[in-house]
Amino acid sequence: MGNALFGRGSDKHVGSKESGLEIVVLGTGAGATHIYSKESSSSFVVLRDGEPVLLCDMGYGVTASCLQHVGRVPACTYISHNHGDHAGELPLVLAVEGTAAAAAGRPLLALLAHPDVMAELRGHRLRELHSTGRPLESFASFHEVPSGTATPVPCCGSGSGSGSGSGSGEGSRNSNGCGTSGRGSSSRSAAPGGCGLSVRPFRARHSETCYGLVIYDEGRPVLGWTADSGYDEELYTALAEAPLVLVDARAKGSAEHAGFSDLARIVSLPALQGRQLYVTGYGRQDEAPRPADGVPAGVRLARPGLRIALQPAPAARAEAQAGAGASRAGCGGAAGGDEGLQGRSKEAAAASEAGRPGGHAFEAGSGGTSGVRAAVRV
Length: 378
Ligand SMILES: [Zn+2]
Prior knowledge:
The longest helix is centred in the N-terminal third of the chain and has 15 residues, at 90-104. The chain has a domain at 21-155 and 195-309: Metallo-beta-lactamase, Chain A (4-Layer Sandwich). The chain starts with 20 loop residues before the first strand and ends in a 25-residue tail after the last helix. Strands 7, 8, 9, 10, 11, 12, 13 and 14 form an 8-stranded mixed sheet that branches. A 7-stranded mixed sheet has the order 6-5-4-3-2-1-15. The chain has 10 helices and 15 strands. By secondary structure, the protein is an alpha/beta fold.
């Protein structure tokens, strides 16, 4: 593989119709990254069959990155905590999207957060909307997602029609992510779980009340995400229910952010064995971990534009094959499981199941057809 190991992975950006479930990384920025460097704060968006259905965090720079990479703001947004680099753009996006949706008769954007985080958002982050004299409910629909259980994502509403990116615009896309045609109706928007996704928050170790997630597809865990968190074995173990885990880590660790030096401990945790581990939240691209940082083999690097196929854990996948699609209420699109995850996804599955023996540090799984194991020069 030679130099290819250290070439940048061939990111596939949204534009062609993909099947199955995947995420697109929108940014890896930390607190002040976007303010001083214009690179997006850490965030990712979940796509179903090529359509964005769930945005995870909306800090500074995320909206522009979302429009750049997937064309519009999806119908649902989950916020992990009320820090500017995770929720900073929320008030204005809700104002723009809410006003546009109301004018067009479309469902409002659905905002998801743990109840404690939602209280922070409503009372502080969204305070500037109070001056409009309009209730917050006129800008978005609010969905509290408690920890301890998986809550269906109401992602089958119509998404943004106000984005300026390519492909945005009312009627130009089916935004419900479910493979159905036409704009989402109010009833579809209100129907929880219509797209098959559900989310279960897990408390992270952070200065602000913060909850990461496990995301499920038809009840099968597909992604764990720490959001912002200091080193926390209990959290990592819980998230490892999913075959792929996104971990917050930066060059210098602290009580509220894991450090690159913690990654070796994380990958050695029993629950993490056989899991794909991606690092995010490290800041600018030139602050990404380097070989000299001692990051263990197999740890991969999230970076803007990276697409990663999601699929259930092997056991759950076998179960899914037996009854593929049977429980996918409200969605007529491709079912989860291997059937809907072709080509590169199977390659990703093979990499996951192999536990990445002999893998290379800083593998930047491109998620593209060129292979998920191409490494990146950092
Ligand atoms: Zn934070």
